[in-house]
Amino acid sequence: MKASVEFEDDNGRVVNYVRHANGGGLVSPRARVHEGAMVASTAYVEAGAQVGDRSRIGAGSWLDLDVIVGEDVVVAGNVHLGPRTRAEDGTWIGTGARVGSDVVIARGARVAPDAVVRDAASYVGAQAPAARTSGSRRRPGCAHSSRAG
């Protein structure tokens, strides 16, 4: 049986999480984490998120709403993946990285430790072409660089 943990969110609502069997991380009951994945004990996986087989979510990491992590992905410690971000198969996201909303980290790409990825135009690094925004879905108030059409 999985242990249940209750929290109160910013709006005073009670939110329930369960401890993932492989690593003990806190996972929303509305998230899907493959049984072959590992979620560290101090990691959080929010509602709608999906984590593929053989992927590892490091200590202190937070997968926000509707994040998709493919197979064989390493999300190192203290990483934040913003809402609707997708890390495709075989990617590696370094310790302390912050990835904004609606970003796709392409198959096999590497995100440097402590990198801040807002969208493809603002990501600077050896794998810059691998990060791209998913297109038209943008959250109000998020900083995005302008693009020539």
Helices and strands in order:
Elements: E1 4-8, E2 14-19, E3 26-27, E4 32-33, E5 38-39, E6 44-45, E7 50-51, E8 56-57, E9 62-63, E10 68-69, E11 74-75, E12 80-81, E13 86-87, E14 92-93, E15 98-99, E16 103-105, E17 110-111, E18 116-117, E19 131-133
Parallel strand pairs: 3-6, 4-7, 5-8, 6-9, 7-10, 8-11, 9-12, 10-13, 11-14, 12-15, 13-16, 14-17, 15-18
Antiparallel strand pairs: 1-2, 2-3, 16-19
Multimeric organization: single chain
* Average pLDDT reading: 81
Which class of secondary structure composition applies to the elements?
mainly beta
Shape: globular
Order of helices and strands: EEEEEEEEEEEEEEEEEEE
- Distance between termini? 53 Å
Uncertain regions: pLDDT < 50 for 5+ in a row?
A: 121-149
Say how many strands there are: 19
Beta-strand percentage range: 25-35%
CA-atom Rg in angstroms: 15 Å
* Domain module tally: 1
Topology-level CATH name: UDP N-Acetylglucosamine Acyltransferase, domain 1
* Number of discrete helical segments: 0
Spatial strand sequence of the major β-sheet:
1-2-3-6-9-12-15-18
Largest sheet: 8 strands, mixed
CATH uppermost class = Mainly Beta
Query: Percent of residues in helical segments?
Result: under 10%
Any guess at the CATH architecture?
3 Solenoid
CATH superfamily: Hexapeptide repeat proteins
